[in-house]
Design a protein that fits this description.
By secondary structure, the chain is an alpha/beta fold. The protein is built from 8 helices and 8 strands, in the order αβααβαββαβαβββαα. 25% of the residues lie in helices and 15% in strands. Helix 4 links the parallel strand 2 and strand 3. The structure holds 2'-O-acetyl adenosine-5-diphosphoribose (OAD). It comes from Penicillium cosmopolitanum.
Length: 245
């Protein structure tokens, strides 16, 4: 096994001694919850647990393209017009300073929108106006307009498939704040080569994480896990300065 122990300190040592510089991250909603954005599946606070008022048969219908065609109202009732391999559509990583070209928004983002029928882009200002007025935006062709986030029943953006082979070339993988329950994203950690450490920072154990000899599990809060990682690397002050603003 590559690591001396299944600990963050051992990972830090691995990074320093092996000149590690091809790290991949795979993240989900859990990394944004401390910024006040709910995840999907946490029992009381998750989005899916709080959609009772929408009267859906399945909470996931709110992001189902067939359902949206028939009834786009529940999606717009959410009022969610906010703005690495991320499943997140909140653009927070970009805002936190990660360069755009480093991010694969596997489930799209709220940064743009278009007609679901003719695919014509729809202007940002119009979008904001319509949503502010509680109206469903429609294209000139009559089709409904939807933010460029990937709904169930839709293909992931080409950037996901173009970059999908990268995990195999990684020398460290960090999976953070995701239940790894939605494919094909959920398979990314399995594409990391054998003998390459994989770190999971999450409330619970998810996916196959922990099944390999060099898997490190930091079960708990993302921020606490990141702090622990930074401390082991000697980056604690830098991190606190960043977080302190
Ligand atoms: P989930 O809500 O399924 O999973 C979030 C994970 O993060 C869970 O395991 C939580 O326990 C954990 N978590 C929450 N807050 C945390 C914190 N502060 N610290 C550590 N862990 C925390 O969200 P995703 O895995 O991102 O897709 O969901 C994947 C996809 O399902 C989404 O991109 C979305 C959704 O349906 C589409 O809409 C296509």
């Amino acid at each position: 096994s590559v690591l001396e122990a299944r600990s963050m300190e051992a990972v830090a040592k691995y990074i320093k001694q092996n000149d590690v510089k091809r790290i991949v991250l795979m993240v989900g909603a859990g990394i944004s919850t401390s910024a006040g954005i709910p995840d999907f599946r946490s029992p009381d606070t998750g989005l899916y647990a709080n959609l009772a008022f929408l009267d859906l048969e399945e909470p996931e219908d709110v992001f189902d393209i067939t359902f949206f065609r028939e009834n786009p109202k529940p999606f717009y009732a959410l009022g969610m017009l906010l703005k690495h391999f991320t499943q997140n559509i909140d653009c927070l990583e970009r805002q936190a300073g990660v360069p755009g070209e480093m991010i694969v928004e596997a489930h799209g983002s709220f940064a743009s929108q278009r007609c679901i029928e003719c695919k014509t882009p729809y202007p940002d200002e119009e979008m904001h106006k319509m949503v502010d007025q509680g109206k469903v935006p429609r294209c000139g062709c009559g089709g409904y307009v939807k933010p460029d986030i990937v709904f169930f029943g839709e293909a992931l953006p080409s950037s996901f498939f173009e970059n999908r082979s990268l995990p195999a070339a990684a020398d460290l993988c960090i999976v953070m704040g995701t239940s790894l329950s939605v494919q094909p994203f959920a398979s990314l950690p399995s594409l990391v080569s054998d003998g390459v450490p994989r770190v999971l920072i999450n409330m619970q154990k998810v996916g196959g994480m922990g099944s390999r000899p060099d898997d490190v599990l930091l079960l708990g809060d993302c921020d606490a896990g990141v702090r622990k990682f930074a401390k082991a690397m000697g980056w604690e002050e830098e991190l606190e300065a960043l977080w302190g603003g």
